[in-house]
Amino acid sequence: MKGLCDCNSFFASCERLFRPDLIGRPIVVLSNNDGCIVALSKEAKIQGITRGTPYHQVKETLDLMHCAVFSSNYTLYQDISDRVMDVLSQNVYNMKPYSIDESFFTLPEYMSPQKLRATMTQYTGIPVTIGIARTMTLCKVANYTGKHRADGTFVLKESDEKAILQKTPIEEIWGIGRKKSELLHHFGITTAYQLMEKDDLFIKKKLSITGLATVMELRGTPMISIEQNETKSCCSGISFSHPMTSREELEVAISCHAQTLSDKLINKGLSCQKIGLNIFTNRFQADFLSPYGTTVLDEPTDYTPTIISAAKQILAKIYCPGQYKGCRIWALDIQQNKGRQLDLFHSQSYARTMEKQDKISKVMDSINRKYGKGFVKSGAQMGKEKNDLMKRDYLSPFYTTQWKDIPKVILDE
Amino acid sequence: MGNMKEPPFGSTIVMEIPISCGFPSPAQDSKQSPLDFNKLLIHHPSSTFCLKAKDSSLTIFDINKGDLFIVDASLVPQKNDLIVVDFEGVITVKKLIKHNGTLFIEDTEGKVPMKESIHIKGVICSIVRNIR
Questions:
Q1: What is the Cα–Cα distance from A315 to A239, expressed in whole angstroms?
Q2: Is B124 on the interface with A (CB under 8 A)?
Q3: Which chain B positions have a beta carbon within 8 Å of A79's beta carbon?
Q4: Does some domain include residue A394?
Q5: How many residue contacts between A and B have a Cβ separation below 8 Å?
Q6: I need a labelling partner for A327 at 20 to 30 A (CA). Which of A376, B68, B82, B87 fits?
Q7: In A, which residues are within 8 Å of B46 by CB distance?
Q8: Domain for residue B98, yes or no?
Q9: If DSSP codes are grouped into helix, strand and coil, which group holds residue B111?
Q10: How confident is the model over B37-53, as a mean pLDDT?
């Protein structure tokens, strides 16, 4: 049987890991720059707080409900996610991570979902829900049902599928978005079972071929597969804490993100051959600007200085005066470093440069890993700390990745 | 070196300095990687976390301020283990003891019976102490 392991309120659970005083208390996690609510605990959901709400709109309400507020601490979430995935992979077959807090797998016959869930929770401290079913889409349905059960697991047996799908609203089906749900409502379709009963032609017409795959999955035929390492592009971006107008200011900000991007590539063992850059002003103003440009590199690379200079080159091309709110930088045409293809006509001296670049990147990366992100950086980033560029007023410590941040315990009160 | 004699004036010294690669080290094949403290101290990296002692507690734990605890959440607590618990909303260290067949958690204040509501976060498997 296929399975899905989903961490419950993942970001909030991470924040709670070393803060038992927060157990049972509402928690919200804010987006980059402390703008909107991106994640929230069950307790906050119950009190009517919703994802996507701008923080300043509900600040007072949150204070009243004694809610804990956090800036997003992706360093922490990623480390905990890696741990969750590692423990899971040791207990199941064929694990396929789907997002930072979800992973599909095949459940071994000797393992019960209850035992798996207990192990996951004990080993990682993160509560999870386990859904078991015949296909991935049905696993999502099983998970949805499991979330509301005390033991946090649900095995969707073939014989129970009809009964459960009759109770599953179409909005909850994996791959059916809000727009498609609204469309289907017009045809009187509100549950997964009603959708399943429709003929293929109708589904293909209304929901396209991917919608048909979803319905086939609901009927019990596996159609979807998730392939790992299929990263095609990688992006780093952010909205600035204050609008930026000058090119110099933007250059510093962009250099920081070029570094982050290069770090991501190095960590994943990838190189890119094309860089894309977009800077944008306030979307809701009449003079909205969002210039975008790309540049093709001579060779695939993960080397920070090359990526930074490429990004600056694009900036020079696309910059026009404006009040910029943010930037996004992409690594495009990504490939694995192993067996990196060198241009046939590149000389040996070029190969040596590559080797040198490789060494510099590795040294910078290892220093940053040891002494903290951004300890050594390229000269282009001087003048401003990345953290100054981003507002993170409620950031929790990096409990599991920085010596200075490891939790302290009091022994004698 | 100090009492090396100066050669007599006018004489020529011929020095032969052999420069070669020398005999290959007979130990080369026996090379091993250096001692890895991660391997020694951390057996289950994904379920291991660190805590630091904020104060000393010499009476029952023999712990100094600044000691680093390596805590493994995958271990099953046994009697006389030092364990990390969520106790009344605070993370703290206790000793798990067995008395007349009942489990208790003990600290300097005394001991209380182990109950469901006390959540064990992990077992301390090593303590790292910097003694300088």
A1: 16
A2: no
A3: none
A4: no
A5: 77
A6: A376
A7: 82-83, 86-87, 90, 123-124
A8: yes
A9: strand
A10: 93
Q: Quick check: A307 and A314 in contact, CB under 8 A?
A: no
* Same-domain pairing of A288 and A367: yes
CATH of the domain at A413: 3.30.70.270
Is B84 an 8 Å CB contact of chain A? yes
Helix A247-268, helix A348-371: angle, nearest 10: 90
Range of the domain at A253: 234-339+348-382
The verdict on residue B64 lying in a domain is: yes
Q: Quick check: A223 and A259 in contact, CB under 8 A?
A: no
> For the segment A164-202, what is each residue's pLDDT rounded down to a tens digit?
999 999 988 988 878 888 889 999 999 999 998 888 888
Domain boundaries, position B124: 36-128
CA distance A260 to A368: 11
Q: Does B66 touch chain A (CB under 8 A)?
A: no
Q: Which two tokens stand for residue A150?
A: 């005390």
CB B97 within 8 A of CB B103: yes
Task: Judge if A163 and A128 occupy the same domain.
Answer: no
pLDDT for the residue A81: 92
Pair A161, A146 in one domain: no
The interface predicted TM-score of the complex, written ipTM, equals: 0.78
A49 and A64 co-located in one domain: yes
Instruction: List chain A residues with CB under 8 Å of B90.
Output: 20-21, 410
- Using DSSP's 3-state secondary structure scheme, residue B55 falls into coil
pLDDT score of A32: 79
Check if B109 contacts A (Cβ < 8 Å).
yes
Is residue A391 included in any domain, yes or no? no
